[in-house]
Amino acid sequence: DGVIKRHKEVTITDLPGIYSLSPYSNEEIVTRNFIINEKPDGIINIVDATNIERNLLLTMQLIELDIPMVIALNMMDEVEVSGGSIDINGLEARLGVPVVPISASKGQGLQELVGHAINVAKYEEHPGRLDFCDKNIKNEEAIHRCIHSICHLIQDHAEALHIPLRFAGTKLAEGDKLVEEALNLDQNEKDTILHIIEEMNHERCEELSDLLPEAMLIEGDASNENLLREEGISNMEAFISLTNYDEENIMLSLYANKVSDAKLITKINKISFEDVVSEIPIGSIISPKNLTAEYIIRYVRSMQNSLGSNVEAVYRMVHNKVEALEFYIKEESKVTNVCLADLKLKDNLLVCAIVRNGKRITPSGQDMIMKGDSVIVVTTKIGLNDIQEIMKV
User: Fold this and answer.
1) Would the pTM count as exceeding 0.70?
2) 20 to 30 A from 281, CA-CA: which of 70, 123, 160, 226?
3) Cβ-based neighbour number of residue 338 at 10 Å
4) Strand arrangement, sheet containing 309-317
5) What residues are paired with 108 via a beta bridge?
6) pLDDT for 362-376, tens place per residue?
């Protein structure tokens, strides 16, 4: 906790940086519990202006808590430098909360931000919109009805426990067990909610069938062994477990490994589990946090890079000991127009592919890197920022 300069009557609490209020990590649980239990007078939601979409999930969840909030749109200076612009008034109108453009690194807009935050808290200016479902859009009808039906059912429980109704309803629709326990629902209410969710899933399956006419969609409980057998799990070429629960994903992949030769992909939310699960046969492991981290690494390296190419993508493998990088060659340099065999490449580094004019080349020693190419490199040398760094000094 701390105080704001020239506003000693205001206490500000810096919570862990997160991208969701779903209880998958200690940071998310700490932040969520603080907001729900401590009931702050207001929230400053700091959003990266260069990548608004990534922050929208958390923003929507915070709005559903119905707590006075102001959005700090940070890094606006970088947006402007890149020639971009953001319709601040339009964003405020769509979200129903004040939006203040700032640049924290340059100290721009901070006084205006503090002023807005104090005002929304003092005058209890709650978000002007909590419901972002549009029942007039076909693929949102089912979700709209599901959340509203659940909210109607749990209203008394939520009000008695001072849990924001819309937030609780949405979380129950997502299968959030912590919210279900907090509301102290009886078995009949739990069964009714389950039925509402099943009805939503049925409608969603029908909608997806229309959107994906060539795909086979299965409506049912993926943890049901009989269902998996009936749908031919033993003959599947790939099996991907993507539920919200790590334990369920692990068990599903273990079962698929037992009864099939399918390629396995398993979603693990808790990164701390990776060292344990890497020793069991559940195939490739994907982590939302690692995917986010990879995106951040790619972004930071691209921003740092002032040479002739940018890191287009970064992927970590083998317990983060190996990186696969994609470089885009913007201009000629000492690595271009030279046979790969003549380049003195660093040890433990391999140029795996060159993409030129949309066609992939599996390079030999006589192939060259040229301006406009995308080049895939795999290496144990963690931290390469530019294509020229593939060479020995």
Assistant:
1) no
2) 226
3) 13
4) 309-317, 322-329, 374-379, 349-356, 359-361
5) 103
6) 888 899 999 999 888
